[in-house]
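Subject: for your reference before the review

Hello V.,

The reviewers asked for a structural picture of the protein, and I figured it would be easier to keep everything in one thread rather than splitting it across files. Below is the amino acid sequence we used in the manuscript, unchanged from the supplementary table.
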Amino acid sequence: MTPSVREFYKDKSILITGATGFVGKVLVEKLLRDCSDLKVIYILLRQKKGVPGEERLKELCSNKVFELLQKKNPSIFSKLKFISGDILEEELGLSNDDKQELQRNCQIIFHSAACVRFDQKLKDAVHMNTTGTLRVLNLAETMDNLEAFVHLSTAYCRCDLDELDERLYPAVHKPRKIMDIVEWMDDETLKHIEPKIIESEPNTYSYTKAITEDLVAEYGSKFPIAIGRPSIVTSAWKEPFPGWVDNLNGPTGLLIGSGKGVIRTMHCEPSYTADAIPVDVVANGCILIAYATALDKAKEAQFFNITLSDVQKMTWKEVIETGEKWVNTYPFLIALWYPGGTIKSYWFTHQLAVIFFHILPAYICDGLLFLLGKKTFMVNVQKRIGHGLGVLQYYTTKQWCFKNTRFLSLMNRVSEEERELFYIDVSKLDTEEYLKDYVLGARHFVCKEDPSSLPRARKLHTIRYVVDVITKLLLVGLFCYLLYSYSDLFTSLVSYVDSSLRAILS
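And here is what came back from the structure prediction:
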């Protein structure tokens, strides 16, 4: 008889890499809460910024994402076991005791550790995303009782394709050859040839994810493997809290930047569909993928596109307009200016807007701060924003179709009760309500602005609106005054240009 999801996870020993990441935190929380009969979750952690791994585990358990669990079932955290290790080290830097324990006991691996920076140097991205994955695969190969290995990739691993099916697409380059190249080649030469190497993809993140899929698939005949491909991962839909998010990546940074009046233009095709998936749906998807992979025992890697695809359709224009509505309803307490601006279909008009609404105001602001003897910052902020928008805008000016039939079919393998518990059906998602929660979540969890500050934030928002209107009126008035005062000069200039052109043409 086929076990239910919770029956399957009972007494299971699970290894999770990347547990401190956005998806990793939600995955750990969900497993502890709704698969509480599991035996142990091994958390692979390294020392970071001088903080030992044990302390990082304590910090993880005290994270806001675990707040409900801390209140309802604090003893469940005893099922988390710290494993000192680093995917950048040979053999993961594991001690002999830890390695032997994992080899004896581990039954499921969720590998989500990755460098998600799109501008990372190729060598660093390969070391983290490809070589690091190889080390985890080599460990998995020595495990006595491994039932499922789930590798988290991305739906944007083959950006050169307009349609991505749930299957392996052979990488442009052999992953082992690329790993070899970054080891022996000097940094200067590698930097020079990097654009040519990754030309099939927009950045090193997508490129390394693409070649890593090829590497993972090599092990498909050795133990049950699945590769999950989420699209853009956004705030939680339902769990652990509606709107929960803890980073500034992707759309969250855009939401906060525009909500604070810093971002006022964006290169985007408004009619294209936005494919973004809530982080709790990704976590539930991982749990169901491991369940199905272990039961099926397929002899080759299985692929699952964790995407909206045709289940939910919302254009970038609709997303941005709805987000703008909720940002004005639930404004940020601390902001530079009143939110405004528009999305631009054409690169040239976007660049003009960048000059007039991003760069010039930044220099004016820093100039005033300099005269007042204060520390300047806006120019540097705008440089970082410009770089971030440049990365994001690749994905807002193209459109892809992600086939996700296999992923959606996971719902048919579980009971109605567990379908609700491990929900992946986004057809029931109310986009208006979701985006409202997203704005509130970004405000509360990322910007640390308590909901009790909303009345004050709304007053300040009104003041910013009045200042914005007055400033626009003054600028329009100044322009009209200059046009009127120097109309003769403008007329003479136009006549001169006209006569010069006629002389050249004749």
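For the response letter, the relevant points are probably these. The first strand starts at residue 13 and ends at 17. The two ends are 92 Å apart (CA to CA).

Happy to draft the paragraph if you're swamped.

O.
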